[in-house]
């Protein structure tokens, strides 16, 4: 379970996240990167407007959505 940092100060939040990340072992940082990559691929695949990764111009790389999902106005 990863910690949840609560603060209103963005600079403090960035510092806390940076300290947490660099406090991990190299193996833990690699596992975190793999998990983030899997989440990004799942989000990309969830948008039906995006081409499949096999037919995308970059092959296996997923850089950004071809057609972003429209969100409601806030």
Q: Biggest β-sheet, characterized?
A: none
Radius of gyration: 16 Å
- Output the structural class: mainly alpha
Work out the strand percent. Answer: under 5%
SS elements, strand count: 0
C-alpha end-to-end distance: 31 Å
Helix content: 40-55%
Per DSSP, the total helix count is 2
What best-fitting shape do the alpha-carbon axes yield?
A: flat
Listing every helix as H and every strand as E from the N terminus to the C terminus, the arrangement reads: HH
**What ranges have pLDDT less than 50 throughout 5 or more consecutive residues?**
none
What is the residue-averaged pLDDT?
A: 80
Describe the protein in words.
With 74 residues, the protein is mainly alpha-helical. The chain is built from 2 helices and no strands. The protein has helices at residues 10-23, 26-46. The longest helix has 21 residues, at 26-46. It starts with 9 loop residues before the first helix and ends in a 28-residue tail after the last helix. The model has no long low-confidence stretch (mean pLDDT 80).
Brief summary:
47% of the residues lie in helices and 0% in strands. The protein is built from 2 helices and no strands.
Which keywords apply here?
flat; mainly alpha; 74 residues; 2 helices
């Amino acid at each position: 379970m990863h910690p949840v940092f609560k603060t209103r100060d963005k600079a403090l939040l960035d510092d806390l996240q940076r300290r947490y990340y660099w406090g991990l072992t190299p193996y833990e940082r690699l596992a975190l990167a793999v998990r983030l990559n899997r989440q990004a691929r799942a989000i990309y695949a969830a948008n039906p407007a995006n081409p499949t990764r096999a037919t995308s111009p970059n092959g296996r790389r997923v850089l950004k959505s071809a057609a972003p999902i429209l969100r409601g106005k806030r």
